[in-house]
Design goal:
There is one protein chain. The chain is α/β, with parallel strands linked by helices. It has 12 helices and 18 strands. 26% of the residues lie in helices and 24% in strands. The strands form 4 sheets. Strands 3, 4, 5, 8, 9, 16, 17 and 18 form an 8-stranded mixed sheet that branches. Strands 12-11-10-13-14-15 form a 6-stranded parallel sheet, sandwiched between helices. A two-stranded antiparallel sheet has the order 1-2. The longest helix has 15 residues. The two termini are 41 Å apart. 51% of the residues are buried. The structure holds zinc ion (2 copies). One zinc ion binds next to loops.
């Protein structure tokens, strides 16, 4: 790291000039290279990255490009380091930073909005109007590490202090990487849905956000929480995370099953995490009149939606982007109080040098992989096999 005026470091955490970093080449290709260790500026710290979880969005970026946007375009062959679900240790403080201390363990959320647009001022920094405008003459200060700026598949990264969440010693590195995923579910449920205890929730799609959506909904007091999906092993994990009922949609009609399980009425909220083409039309029939549907996943093609049913029944539809309004802090509060065990979705760990193998496990769901984590000093482990 280059020394700069006002930047503080500690002899306890010596910082090298360069680091190992994975960069994205052509689609599907990542290469290990050396990069300079970045220097934190005002309101930023340098984080030594201790663990990174692989997200389905990382796979989307590495193989297809969007939603990453580097210099206003595709992310390929731009010396871009992906990875956004990381945690680590604060090792240097930018000028004026007194909110965190060197040696503190933190996990990160992704988006540091520009801080000056209408949405950022409302706390909706994941929907920043200056998204991706972070370079050259158009630098508005927006940062979304692993999307519009360098991310976490490397040894060090700078983060705006607003993207940090302090974590307790008792929380493992692996668990801490899952805070942002739980935070995304939390954003959907608390900010858009307004869930209160005793209300009913369906989560459709048992991916990482859906599974932690079950856990967050249950921790918030939802009753009942119903999880729908196609794979029994994922549905079983949903039961372990607090689902009251699970429905395998291969075996029964999802809408009928939900109505039966909730007294024939339909539920108050659906958190749609499947992205299946028929998901919206099913979700609007799973909710009761006046119910709310939160869309946290998207199909890859355009689909016809029964608007008349939505209007006649006063149904609310919300799209959410990421983990806004500091939802990660509320998710971390649940996790540090052990209100649910997010590590049930962590299945594999690899060393940072083995990132291509880790990506393959995540992409091909080898050995029923759900969340695959890479660690700077990691040793490969297969959690499911070991337990
Ligand atoms: Zn993610
Ligand atoms: Zn903004």
């Amino acid at each position: 790291m280059r020394a700069a005026p006002g930047v503080r470091t500690s002899p306890d955490f010596p910082i090298p000039d360069t680091m190992k970093a994975w960069v994205l080449g052509d689609p599907g290709q990542v290469a290990l290279t050396d990069k300079p260790v970045p220097t934190p500026k005002r309101a930023e710290v340098l984080v030594r990255i201790d663990a990174v979880a692989i997200c389905a969005t990382d796979l989307e970026i590495i193989w297809h490009g969007p939603p990453a946007s580097i210099q206003g375009g595709f992310a390929f062959n731009k010396n871009f380091t992906p990875g956004h679900e990381y945690m680590g240790t604060v090792v240097a403080l930018g000028p004026g930073v007194d909110e965190y201390r060197i040696g503190q363990r933190v996990t990160v959320e992704i988006h540091a909005g520009c801080g000056q647009c209408k949405r950022c001022r409302e706390g909706m920094y994941t929907a920043c109007h200056n998204y991706g405008l972070n370079y050259g003459e158009v630098d508005k200060g927006h940062r979304a590490n692993g999307f519009t700026t360098d991310g976490g598949f490397c040894e060090y990264q700078v983060n705006n202090i607003n993207t940090l969440v302090a974590i307790p010693d008792a929380m493992s590195d692996e668990e801490a990487t899952l805070v942002v995923t739980a935070g995304t579910a939390m954003y959907g449920l608390t900010e858009l849905g307004g869930l209160v205890a005793g209300e009913s929730v369906v989560v459709t799609g048992p991916g990482p956000i859906g599974l932690l959506g079950v856990a967050v909904a249950k921790a918030m007091g939802a009753q009942p929480v119903i999880l729908t999906g196609t794979r029994d092993n994922r549905l079983k994990t949903g039961l372990e995370l607090g689902a009251d009922h699970v429905v395998n949609v291969r075996n029964e009609d999802a809408v009928e099953a939900v109505r039966r399980l909730n007294g024939g009425k339909g539920v108050d909220y659906v958190l749609e995490c499947s992205g299946a083409p028929n998901a919206v039309n099913e979700a609007i029939r799973m909710v009761n009149r006046g119910g709310k549907v939160c869309l946290a996943a998207f199909p890859h093609e355009q689909v016809p939606v029964d608007i008349a049913h939505i209007v006649r029944n006063n149904i609310y539809l919300y799209g959410i982007r990421g983990e806004g309004k500091s939802a990660t802090h509320r998710a971390e509060a649940f996790m540090s109080q052990k209100r649910f065990d997010a590590t049930k979705i962590h299945t594999h760990t690899f060393a940072l040098e083995d990132l291509p193998t880790a990506l393959r496990y995540a992409r091909e769901r080898i050995e029923d992989a759900i969340k695959v984590v890479v660690k700077a000093k990691g040793v490969a482990t297969r959690k499911m096999a070991a337990e």
